[in-house]
Amino acid sequence: MKPFSHELADALAQRYVMGTLRGMARQRFTTLIRYQPLLRQRVQYWQNLTMPLLEALPPRPPREQVWHGVQQRLFNPVVQTRPGLFLRWKPFLAGALMTALASVLFITVHPFPSPSAPQNYGALLAINPSASWWIGISQDHLNLHPITPYPVDDQHDLQLWLLPAHGTPISLGLVNRQDTHLSLPLSKPLRESLAQSNGVALSLEPRGGSPTGLPTGPILTHTKIFPI
Amino acid sequence: MKRPDPEHLMTLLSQCALGDRNAFESLYRHTAPNLFAVLTRILKRKDWAEEALQDAYIIIWRQAGRYQPALAAPLTWMTHIARNLAIDQLRRPHIDESHSDLDMDSLSDSTQLLESFLAREEEGRLRDCLNQVDPKQRQTIALAFWHGLSHGEVALHLDLPLGTVKTWLRRGLARLKSCLEAS
Q: For residue B112, which phi and psi values (nearest 5 degrees)?
């Protein structure tokens, strides 16, 4: 393709930086920048030149959730979760301990038939004797099998959490409303932190999951996971 | 508010390139309010601006190793990552409609901002040269630039014919450019 003249490159770069180059033209230009050093140089020129105008805008601090969302998406890309506030963790701990005491009565490990891939860890997560799930953790997946269903009303969802040895709970995802088998892909680091974790927990959250990224509702049950 | 120190940001960026998450948090704390200010003006809706801000920092973390100090100051590099994301998002049809929300308040706010920018005492080539541009033309420039408005949208909001807006922008920017290149 014919290279742009200096004038044309400059005019297009200026419109690109101003933001008035739109639609297909903008898309095309964005691609061309990568291959044409002159365009790149002109874009850089206009970006540097106009920066004082952008710096003149009064800064606006974003909500704290945005930062948590960035961290969640970059470093804990498990299942889509919402960002959260670190401080919510403390009240949660107290609740978790209370409910752990209450639920420990029901936690036993049974040699349940493993559903598919070889499983290395497992746990029985029970809210009460008539509402329970089997959790199986294989090399690369966490499987949650409902044994007896636990009905949840339309305003709520059940959310599954990993309780790391250190730090705040990490959302593993929402329990399927249809109470069918749930299978989550596990990254290697996540699998390791599961193996060394304090276990997993289920909390009752508003429909769609915790709005903060950390448990907000009552912890219904909590269990350690065991090698099987 | 004081601007983040470029040297410090550069150090943080190079630490990010090596995977230092603490440096990344520090970089975010120092710069997010600046990027967010740019995004909210363009995207109008807070939730869209927040989403774009997250996307921007994800790109910044991943591309930190490619940042070239010789080409742009760290904040310039970061701001344009965010700004380009926002302008690209404007192509989404439901976001396009939001531009009808741009009310007279935010227009007059921009006029005031421009006035205070032009009245600054510190030295600045851009400010000096903008001062030499016809006031109507420079207002059009600032409006398009800050709000990410297309020619058509500027025309709509200033209640001017499209041709006039195009001419003002072109002449204003040409004047700006010749002044900047002469100085």
A: -65, -45
